[in-house]
Amino acid sequence: MNKHCYINFRCIFIFVTIILSCSHSLAQNIQIKATEDFKPSSVNQPGKQYPQVNSEGRVRVSISVPQAMKVQLDIGAVKYDLVKDEKGIWTGESAPQVEGFHYYQLNVDGASVPDLGSLFFYGAGRWGSGIEIPAKDQDFYALKDLPHGIVSQKIYFSKTTNAWIRCFVYTPSDYDKNLTTRYPVLYLQHGSGEDETGWANQGKANLILDNLIAEKKAVPMIIVMDNGYATKSKPKEVNTQPTGIGAFNAFKEVLMNEIIPMIDASYRTLADREHRAMAGLSMGANQTIQITINNLDKFASIGGFSGTSNYPSTAAIDPSTFMNGKFKDGEALNKQIKLFWLGLGTKEPNPFPGSVAAFRTMLEKQNIKYGYYESVGTSHEWLTWRRCLYEFASLLFKEK
Amino acid sequence: MNKHCYINFRCIFIFVTIILSCSHSLAQNIQIKATEDFKPSSVNQPGKQYPQVNSEGRVRVSISVPQAMKVQLDIGAVKYDLVKDEKGIWTGESAPQVEGFHYYQLNVDGASVPDLGSLFFYGAGRWGSGIEIPAKDQDFYALKDLPHGIVSQKIYFSKTTNAWIRCFVYTPSDYDKNLTTRYPVLYLQHGSGEDETGWANQGKANLILDNLIAEKKAVPMIIVMDNGYATKSKPKEVNTQPTGIGAFNAFKEVLMNEIIPMIDASYRTLADREHRAMAGLSMGANQTIQITINNLDKFASIGGFSGTSNYPSTAAIDPSTFMNGKFKDGEALNKQIKLFWLGLGTKEPNPFPGSVAAFRTMLEKQNIKYGYYESVGTSHEWLTWRRCLYEFASLLFKEK
């Protein structure tokens, strides 16, 4: 019995040792598998060596927290444990990430905090870390040695919301030279949990247009990037409270009655419907279709990136009732709309594929002409929307 | 002996109990002493309730970190322990802070992290949290219902540094209306560890000028806010590596040979010395005096906020050798310089008071005319520099 006992314990001991060795080897294999060609991310804070990205798209972070019990990298909805060295520096990497821009954060003993290595971006309702996995087609939004437009911060007071609002305005490189030229305007909206900074910071809208215009692939245009959140008459709360899709009930009024007149008064615009477009991503796409289809005397071009006005429904759309029957007369819409354009990433999560598909089915049923673009391999993220802007802007304000 | 022991232990127990009770009361008293009129800081992220500030200038923070062992508020070079409640939310407040803008951070189990409640600002070489203690004179930089200029982001390529550089340009509200008017230009520089975003974000330079111009206290002017870090021929490193006062050896060349020509070509400037000024804070003040005094054919007005070109020395200055004798001929300088202006906070730490005093003594010895302003009660921080800009800009580009 004693001997049995001894053997059994030894067997268990050996078994456990094997298991531990195996799992240790497994863990080591995972470590070894990461290709050691990590480079600092292109959106790091000045002089910061971490976070880094390797050729596989793995993200490596490093943070000094000698007293912490547990530190994790939280990216792509997965938390990766970091490993502490003898100096108290925690380091580790993620599995390969999809190319493009991703929000991420660190988790220190349960506290979700930004990584001080990265620049900060506004998304998911907060300023936080972001990282760029170099995309194969990154050239279209690269900073190049060619004429650059400027992005201006414009402050205006909204009587609708009784609040100060900030918007960003892109003017093309020749705007300050050709002082008699007037330009078409694209109103370009962000998504849920984002704000007016998104399209220039994460979206690189200015660089995309600089490149398109320099290559004569797009018409020089003004782009207005506003905050899509707006609620009526709540002094000092409005526009600083991104509480989700419910909090933009006054945006249509702000845009139609305040932003557009302000822009037409402040900039040399071509202030007619043929030279005014609206596009947006996700929530901004929903807003775009709602606003433009109800105001076709003001807009002739429409872009919906990863979103449509039936969101979040994936059900078949009845055009006789949907949006008060605005899509009933397809022929009339085709005459009025110069460009109706939709885009979507091939890896977007539900309900986007189903929702956009239901909308497209309705458009096709009504014989409404529209352009459709698929961003291969990207999800509900900024590389999808950069590509959408590139494609959409290259078609915009040209002859039908 | 046993009884003695018992009594002794009991005495010690009672003594310790009293001490603990006292310290507990003391701690409670400190808590109670904070006036309960805390309000969310004016520079919080959208919708965030914390950090808060009360009428005494105390800063209260609150963060949910159930697993943390220790969480602190780190502000004004003092770390304040936060207290955890039963839900794992850590809360606490600082001693009263001086009015104005302060950088701060949280410390979670030894990790210095930004507070997700506040907006982030670039200072001390990183993007981090900031808080506004309402100043008694905050009206001069308040956002008011009057015409607002715009702040534009301008990208240009520097051959000197072989790098892309971003600067921000303030144009007054009438710039886009009076298309034939030309404007004087103020080149306005940040301090050590800060960047081109500082003057608009922390400094509120645009609002200060909007207010001054609307009240006709200042001449409408263009303000150029550039990054003062520049080193020669280090591709892709320059301007993103604020490594201290040594790393701006090429800034003079960038400013004189690239920025000024680029601004004069891109904006409707009055491109002569009488209508060109330079000012800066701390490191930027040092750069300003070095550059302007050596280029009086290009600049006629000079502002040094919390800094002079003898920094960090507090020793008496010999004008026959200082800056190669540029201050030897006071009379000649008086003829050339329209406005020579210095400002300092009354609570600035060493070596600033001594260093600026030594510089002023030299100016006086040489009979060089200059304006001097003291910001009462403020340190080497942004309220000092906001006030300096307000005073300096109200004198700028006016008849001598």
Q: What would you say this structure looks like, in words?
A:
- Chain A is an alpha+beta fold and 400 residues long.
- Chain A has two domains: 39-133, Immunoglobulins (Immunoglobulin-like, Sandwich), CATH 2.60.40; 138-393, 3-Layer(aba) Sandwich (Rossmann fold), CATH 3.40.50.
- Chain A is 27% helix and 25% strand.
- The first copy, chain A, is built from eight helices and 19 strands.
- Chain A has helices at 2-33, 198-201, 205-214, 251-266, 283-293, 330-336, 352-365, 382-395; strands spanning 39-40, 52-53, 59-64, 71-75, 78-81, 83-84, 89-93, 100-108, 111-113, 120-123, 126-133, 150-158, 163-171, 185-189, 222-225, 276-281, 301-305, 339-345, 371-375.
- Chain A has an eight-stranded mixed β-sheet, sandwiched between helices.
- In chain A, strand 4 and strand 5 form a beta hairpin.
- In chain A, helix 3 (205-214) runs parallel beside helix 8 (382-395).
- The longest helix of chain A is centred in the first third of the chain and has 32 residues, at 2-33.
- Residues 1-30 and 235-246 of chain A have low confidence and may be disordered.
- At the A-B interface, strand 9, strand 11 and strand 12 of A face strand 9, strand 11 and strand 12 of B.
